[in-house]
Amino acid sequence: MQIPGHWPKLELRKQARQINMRISVNMMRIRVSGPLYVRENELIQFALEHAEWINKTLNRIAKKSQPELPEEASKPFLFLGGKWIPFEIITHASNSVLWDKQKEQIIAKIPFNPNETPLAELKTSLYQYFARTIIPREFREFAQRNGLSYERVFIRSQKTKWGTCSSKKNLSFNYRLIKCPVEIRYYLYAHEAAHLFHLNHSKSFWNKVLEFDSEYREHEAWLKKNESFLFLAD
């Protein structure tokens, strides 16, 4: 059974009170649910049998969810921590970046010529720099406060996922997470930390998320509402 490569994450669920198999779709995941007695390969097969409907739904959602980007998106601004911050590029071999939070300005001394490098490329490099600098430190502090153990944190550029947690306790976060307000980033830390205990999305998993983030429902709703903008505004 070959799952189409352009599909977002396929999420399989078995629920005690459910009688029939059902599918729900958004740009981040395709959820297939069914009764407890249904095997996972049957859920996958059910999704593949409805591939045409899933593809049409994904296309409709994509067209509907294209956000209107603000003026800053096409100028030397970064959307960091939930707000737009101007940046200046100085071509220099030192490869250093200063974020002056009092002046709300970023000065980047990097080996790029801003006149010869596309603005989108410069922005992506800066987003990834801040993600690699800030996210692992924040998660380490989060883990220490909650007495968690894990192996490594990776910063990646997933097309649809915000984060993952492997059975070997390696975690990865999408670099675009650095664009989110700090409370949204911590919701993602809570979500992936819960996978250290439960590699599924069971009731026990969500109870663990709740332990880490008492307002996770509001934070999850904010992320779903803004995810199209966060992925497009590079």
Report on this structure.
This protein is α/β, with parallel strands linked by helices. It folds into two domains: 56 residues, no CATH class; 162 residues, Zincin-like (2-Layer Sandwich), CATH 3.30.2010.10. The protein is 39% helix and 22% strand. The strands form three sheets. A four-stranded mixed sheet has the order 4-5-7-6, covered by helices on one side. Strands 1-3-2 form a three-stranded mixed sheet, covered by helices on one side. A hairpin with a 3-residue loop joins strand 2 and strand 3. The longest helix is centred in the middle third of the chain and has 27 residues.
Provide tags for this entry.
three-stranded mixed β-sheet; single chain; 2 domains; 234 residues; Zincin-like; 6 helices; alpha/beta
CATH topology of the largest domain: Zincin-like
CATH class of the largest domain: Alpha Beta
What overall form do the CA principal axes indicate? globular
Count helical runs.
6
**Count of beta strands:** 10
Overall residue-averaged pLDDT value: 91
- Overall CATH architecture of the largest domain: 2-Layer Sandwich
The total number of structural domains is 2
Beta-strand level of the residues, as a percent range?
A: 15-25%
Helical content band: 25-40%
Radius of gyration over alpha carbons?
20 Å
The major beta sheet can be summarized as: 4 strands, mixed
- What gap, in angstroms, lies between the N and C termini? 35 Å
Summing up helix and strand content along with how strands pair, one would put the structural category as: alpha/beta
Low-pLDDT segments: none
